[in-house]
Design goal:
This protein has one domain: P-loop containing nucleotide triphosphate hydrolases (Rossmann fold, 3-Layer(aba) Sandwich). By secondary structure, it is an alpha/beta fold. The protein is 41% helix and 16% strand. It has helices at residues 16-29, 45-60, 86-98, 115-123, 135-138, 156-170, 191-207, 219-224, 244-260; strands at residues 3-7, 34-38, 68-69, 104-108, 126-132, 142-144, 151-154, 177-183, 210-213. It is built from nine helices and nine strands.
Length: 269
């Protein structure tokens, strides 16, 4: 069975699609068979990223490892069981297709609360939640006391993950391994950076997730998207001498894949 990696957060602009593409491509370059799904049916940033990649490779005559992207099939009303939600049917059918032929399936969720996102979270073996390193994003995970910075209780997204965990437990599935990524962290030892870090560590022990550094803000990520390339493809494009920023970004990706602790994966790039 494929190991399902869900990248979710109910807020846009946190780096979900960039994370999806880099994790999926890193695994593909390690020789893993990787399926890819984008549940943001309107924006499709992850889907567009993969499409850009395939189009660029075809134009340039290149053959680079890539995830296998699938669209969600339309649900034929005649095939639905009585009372079955069509979105549940669409997602479960495409996962069932990928499951026996893939080592991993990477699923990008929309930056909002949807039925598809709920179902995807219940399927997750590994859940990655990218957050911009600020209390604005932290508010999706938990409420804090503004005077003491103490966590007062879980927030909307954490409650949704809790529900997904309960569904998996009732189905006899293994618990979700939840990793929260701190994206766009300041390079300075800023007061806000320390406060967010302390709040995340406090909350991680309370509701059960791991914390890891993610991707810094870098121009290279915006430049790679139109061609569907990732940090690991630069040398295949003839970039032999990486600048300091690109080297640091590759190290961030290497650390992320290592922190995911995925089955059968040894980081070798």
């Amino acid at each position: 069975m494929a190991h399902i990696i869900v990248v979710g957060n109910e807020k846009g602009g946190s780096g979900k699609s960039t994370t999806c593409m880099h994790v999926a491509t890193a695994l593909a370059r390690m020789g893993k068979k990787v399926g890819a799904l984008d549940l943001d049916l309107r924006q499709r940033s992850f889907g567009r990223y993969v499409e850009n990649r395939l189009a660029f490779l075809a134009r340039e005559g290149l053959d680079l490892p890539s995830p296998e992207y699938r669209e969600l099939p339309e649900a034929d009303a005649a095939t639905l069981a009585p009372g079955e939600n069509p979105y549940d049917h669409r997602l479960s059918s495409v996962v069932a297709e990928l499951d026996p032929v893939c080592d991993f399936v990477v699923i990008d969720c929309p930056g909002s609360h949807t039925r598809l996102s709920q179902v995807a979270h219940s399927l997750a073996d590994t859940l990655i939640t990218p957050l911009n390193d600020s209390f604005i994003d932290f508010d999706l995970l938990a409420r804090i006391d503004p005077e003491t910075s103490k966590v007062t209780g879980p927030s909307i997204y954490s409650e949704m993950v809790w529900s997904a965990r309960q569904l998996r437990a009732r189905a006899g599935l293994k618990p979700i391994d939840w990793l929260v990524l701190r994206n766009r962290m300041s390079s300075q030892q800023a007061h806000n950076k320390r406060k967010v870090g302390e709040a995340l560590e406090q909350l991680s022990k309370r509701i059960g997730f791991r914390v890891a550094p993610g991707f810094s803000e870098r121009v290279i990520f915006r430049e790679l998207f139109p061609r569907g390339m990732t940090l690991l493809d630069l040398r295949d494009l003839g970039v032999e001498n990486l600048n300091i920023s690109n080297i640091a970004a590759r190290q961030e990706l290497r650390d992320l894949v290592r922190d995911l602790n995925l089955p059968g994966v040894t980081v070798d790039f």
